[in-house]
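PT: before anyone asks, these are the final sequences, not the draft ones from last week. 553 residues across everything. Please model them as a single complex and drop the result in this thread when it's through.
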Amino acid sequence: MTEERSLNFLEEIIEQDLQSGKHQQIVTRFPPEPNGYLHIGHASSICLNFGLTQRYPGYTNLRFDDTNPTTEETEYVDSIKQDVRWLGFEWKHERYASDYFDTLFNYACKLIDRGLAYVDDLTPEEIAAQKGTPTQPGVDSPYRSRTIEENRDLFLRMKAGEFPDGARTLRAKIDMTHLNMLMRDPILYRIKHAHHHRTGDKWCIYPMYDFAHGQSDSIENITHSICTLEFVPHRELYDWLIKKLEIYPSHQYEFARRNINYTVTSKRKLLQLVQEGHVNGWDDPRMSTISGLRRRGYTPESIREFCSRIGVAKRENLVDVGLLEFCVREHLNKIALRRMVVADPLLITLTNHSGEVEWLNSENNPESETAGNRQIPFSNQLFVERSDFMEVPPKKFFRLAPGQMVRLKSAYIIRCEEVIKDDRGEVIELKCTYFPESKSGSDTSGLSVKGTLHWVSRAQAVPVELRLYDRLFSVEDPTDSEADFKSFLNPESLQVVKSAYAEPALAEATLTDRFQFLRQGYFVLDKDSTPEKLVFNKTVGLKDAWAKEVKKG
RNA sequence: UGACCCAUGGUGUAACGGUAGCACUACAGAUUUUGGUUCUGUCUGUUAAGGUUCGAAUCCUUAUGGGUCAACCA
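LR: through. Structure below.
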């Protein structure tokens, strides 16, 4: 049962805390802001936070950081919950920072009473101007020395709605010359007369991230508050507030967010792609969102495996999307039902076949003995893949060519006897003969062929739509240059095959089935399917050694 | 001209002062009724310079490189 995998730096910290008796159990939280859909980067954080409390005693909360009513919506709350569950995790408590607005307000009053916070009348521009720069100290606001009574009165009136948006803020009184910009009297509360998705119109002042996140952690007795590296400078303020408020001392730990090449993982950028119509919604199968990956056919198992393999550390990184693809292939290879679909059909007529339909047996999955078999029809007119024929084949082309033999998967060996072309010289049909004694499973022909092709019987073929995807961006890191990341969108990221031919068994496909279309890739039924027209999304292609060979020349 | 974080093959991640390992990728081969899978093998790495030590990827110093910080966003 014991894993051999070595500990990451957070597991090391936790094991020390447990051994030293600092904690008997650990409490973590996954804290999304409900202003967008979760993406693969969040999956990493989810697996980390929930994985830690599966491994060690304790539990994980789901907490929505909903302190900015102008960007947050219930739609996002619902999608986030669905995605976390789909990934296979269940939270102990569902919480919202907005649950704590009353407590937070009281905390703010406490700081005022202790002379540690003040109401400032400066405009955003003025505050920015007196804040200084990373290399220059800031200067005190003229309102910094208001009396406690005055601050209290003003803050209450802010809450009462007496002032318009942006008129005043509540700021912590720390040090305007601090080397850490975040310690230069950070804003704690701002006025926003906005409707909140949970508290409605009860509040017109809302706490800032720094005055909500750490306090919420503390209220929930979070022992290990795990976030990404860009919050490192916030830790000093996180600790300062907890100390001055004398509340439960949660601790913040930071790890490097995972970046993946040929995509973007930024809610802001993903939102742009959706709003500007570069993709068809948050769950477009090309998106790096959890919902997009789900629709694309990725499994929760494969995403969890990916997160486990890329690990947790503190250095900048750009993970190869090839690893994600490896993980999904690895899983799908074990569970996907094998089916035959011809995307670009070339007609084959067997000149020595009667035309009577014969039902042949084929395994659903050679990797799984329990997957069983299915029947596929065989007759004298078949479709094979156009790319599996070449009139003038190169060396080592183990497929169809004039005079050349191949096996049809789970069926018979055939030989190409004649090539039929239309007026334009386009190949439209192959006349072939088959060897009746070469039937799969009872082959007495003595023939041996190097290539095996997928095929479908023309008469029973079911027309289906195939959606083939390529990477959304044509460069590894679309955010790396000055240029707009959208200028690197791959124009060929979606290719639709309107009418491919599928074997009849596929007519019964359901949304939860996973398929491997032989020699092509893994596919999943799309929600756009209708009884008349099935639509399949390509999850990922099979490795293609021949394509590599061709490329080499 | 500041503070903070970081630095191991192409990529990701281990080695906790004692043989630089694992995975992905790439390449070569075997098997194969999927040019898939599986199996075998090969290539490639400690940013640099000093110091401490019998011994340094690991500890110290400096340099170099990358990242973060000046939203009433989170």
